[in-house]
Amino acid sequence: MNNVRVMAARATHFALCTLQSALCIVVCLSADDTVAEDAPPKLVGSASCATAACHGGLAGHKFVGSEFPIWSARDPHSRAYSVLENDLSRQMAALLNLPKPAHESAVCLNCHSPATSVESKLTSISGRTPLAGVDCEQCHGPAERWLTEHVRSDWKLRSAADKQRRGYRDLTDVLTRANACADCHVGGPGRDVNHDLIAAGHPRLFFELSTFHANWPKHWPAEVDAKRHPAVEKGSVFEAKLWTVGQTVAAQRSLELLSQRAELAKVTPARWPELAEWNCFACHHDLRSASWWQSKDAAKRPRGSFAWNAWPYAMLDPLARRVVGSENSIPQSELTKLRSRFESPVLPADAISREAIAIAQGLRSAAERFNRNDAAKDVLSAKSLAAMRLAFVTDDGLNLVNRDWDSATQLFLSLNALQHAIVASTQTDPEQDRQIQAVLDSMNETLNFQPGLRSPRDFAAQPIERLQADLQRLRKLLSPP
Description:
With 481 residues, the chain is an all-alpha fold. It has helices at 2-30, 67-74, 87-95, 106-112, 114-117, 136-140, 160-165, 174-185, 195-200, 209-215, 222-228, 238-264, 296-299, 316-322, 332-341, 349-371, 382-392, 395-403, 405-425, 430-447, 462-478. Helix 10 (209-215) crosses helix 12 (238-264) and helix 19 runs antiparallel to helix 20 (430-447). The protein starts with a helix and ends with a helix. Mean pLDDT is 84; it is low at 1-35 and 119-130.
């Protein structure tokens, strides 16, 4: 009898949720079902995704059907809005002299709760405006034109172009996924974490896609990603794509942001140059002798000049040297020229804007190349990845370690990503893998910030020596016998 009651209750619950879902779809779409195709699709709100009949099922399912509660419980994006009401955000708003609190200011909401920022006037299940933070549609696209379509049996058979036309963002594509993340984690128009925000207390943006992706709590089966990007012989090139596409997209979007900042100088000259374009630790470090900042790389710069922000660009030269021939669209010489401009006391905004956009266009082509399926046969093959890794622990690696913390950290993250990519795409020696991971753990320990700090714990020469020793250990492990 109890089982019958439980089954009846579940059936009633399912029917009510199905009705709720259907009503939500009708309400969301009926007002604008005649919208012109050239008008941007509108947000409909995550309430339409969260019903039990759709993606809001109970925890009995591992992923499929339970995506929303998993996302809500595990993913920090679900709490992106709520952090705007904490003490740090209130302090930042005061320091920035914002006319409104952080949780009402567009400069914060544009990333922390975009639906609230655009005042889409939606209503959630609770009757409140959508305060879910970075919710479903911010990644998957405004659902006005695809919400009803994506539950049809033929949805998976439709072309990517058709889905895109409806506003759907196909996140199975690594390049699309990288750009979706970069919108906020690198920045763009209306989403600029500049020096003012950082000085007020906002964390500096350190975006590296493969690392972010590894640490991101998943609300989908992770093995599906690997299956969608098969290697030629065995396994998957998904991890390799995350790193190569992620590196080029992060640099491309950083250059586009640089161009945007330079263009703003025409309107508000006092805001140029933007201090966030330089290496933070070029200024924010101690003055002891024999420090990282008396490195050989620093000695090459003109006296009194600061290092350009190396984080988005550190791995481009080493990566470009491993992608030979006509397929290499990473503009190395142009990037070197742009870097040298930041060592001058005068920064010509017009020239910097033009050069940054031109380099970004080349990087966009490089990202598309790494993202293509045929990349698994050559540039992302296990053999190519192994050769790249070996190069990174020789001269390339030593140059990066000697440069600055940003470059050394990008080297470590790249070696870590390549290790995972190689293991995912070919047969490896488990004992060698264990030894490699031990060295990578040592590098991580050297580079990690101490709890509560946002800068390296030690600017002295010892970290460089420890990292050089770790690179030597990796060379011995990876060099042919």
